[in-house]
Design a protein that fits this description.
Layout (H helix, E strand, L loop, with lengths): L1 H27 L5 H6 L5 H10 L6 H13 L13 H36 L3 H16 L2 H12 L22 H35 L2 H8 L4 H12 L1 H25 L5 H10 L3 H29 L1 H12 L1
Helix pairs in contact: 1-13, 5-6, 5-8, 5-11, 6-8, 7-8, 7-11, 8-10, 8-11, 9-10, 11-13, 12-13, 13-14
């Protein structure tokens, strides 16, 4: 296990370095000069020159990359051109909205997707199977923007038919007011969680359906279990590594839906911050923000691999045989 962790950590670091190079190069090969783009149209040459010197853009590309990488290793993501605040501080504030929103949406998706997927796979009625199949297709086909607008019209205070939850903004004091903060995240979490839950439902139904036609469930039934007990206790456990992979990839894909929800519900999260910085041409801040998002995706992949090793004894046995060899 230790050798596996070291190998995966080495691959994680190499991938992160490669992504940092790609992000750095992508912003440098944009048409025009980065300083001219950030300074805006019709900016005087003196302003462009001063901005280039201030941001270190007058140095060679390798020197610029090494300076940026050195700052990253020391926790310095640079300073925002607009607010003159450290990007790390802004990201830390916005992450307190984005990551709880992702976790709430994922919790809703798991609570809906796994039980409904199991019920769909175990259903014997053709009508029930057809209904669950249609529900999964419709739920997955609904755009996050449309579902968010629907929830606003139904459940938002002031504009909805049933005024239960706020539809705009986040408490100024943040999580110092946990009740209000959680209420502000419920509607956007529902708008993304239901869509993601439909996908998890389809995967769960497919995986459990394969287990029902395998010998695992028959073996459990021969030991005295019912079909449902054997499917849930044995089949679902055997399929759990594939389900973990699906959940990990789904959590990474939720970033897109969360960005839409944050702008629709006026939440001060990372998605709205990234979109605002791109619109305001704060490209050096965008550079660090894109790298952080890429690091989040890579970290999810690393965690999925580790969870696979923990829940699947066959992979652990394979590691021992590899070490012994």
């Amino acid at each position: 296990m230790a050798r596996f962790l070291l190998r995966r950590l080495a691959l994680f670091i190499l991938a992160l370095v490669a992504v940092s190079v790609l992000v750095f190069a992508a912003l440098r090969i944009l048409p025009g000069d980065v300083a001219s783009v950030m300074a805006g149209l019709n900016a005087p040459p003196e302003r462009v020159t001063a901005l280039r010197q201030r941001l270190g853009l007058d140095r060679s590309y390798p020197r610029q990359y090494l300076d940026w990488a050195n700052g990253l290793m020391h926790g310095d993501l640079g300073r925002s051109l607009l607010t003159d605040r450290p990007v790390a501080a802004q990201v830390g504030e916005r992450a307190q909205v984005t990551f709880p929103l992702i976790l709430c949406g994922l919790a809703i998706a798991l609570v809906l997707g796994i039980p409904l997927g199991c019920a769909s796979a175990l259903a014997r009625s053709p009508r029930m199977q057809a209904f669950s199949h249609m529900a999964a297709i419709v739920g997955g086909a609904v755009p996050a923007l449309w579902s968010g607008l629907l929830f606003i019209m139904l459940f938002s205070k002031g504009a909805g038919l049933i005024g239960l939850l706020p539809s705009q903004g986040f408490p100024v004091q943040g999580w110092d007011q946990p009740g209000q903060a959680l209420q502000s995240l419920l509607l956007p979490a529902l708008s993304t969680g239901i869509i993601v839950g439909a996908g998890i439902m389809r995967y769960t139904r497919s995986l459990l359906g394969d287990m029902l036609s395998s010998g695992y469930v028959d073996m459990g039934m021969s030991c005295g279990m019912t079909r449902t007990q054997a499917a849930l206790r044995i089949g679902l456990r055997v399929a759990s590594p594939q389900l973990v992979s699906v959940v990990g990839l789904t959590m990474a894909e939720m970033i897109t839906g969360v960005m839409v929800s944050e702008n629709l519900f006026a939440l001060p999260g990372l998605g709205s911050m990234l979109i605002a910085d791109v619109g305001n041409r704060d490209l050096l801040a965008v550079q660090s923000e894109l790298l952080l998002l890429a690091a989040f995706f890579l970290l999810l992949g690393l965690l999925v691999d580790i969870v696979h090793r923990l829940i699947d004894p066959r992979l652990r046995d394979g590691t021992r045989r590899e070490v012994a060899a």
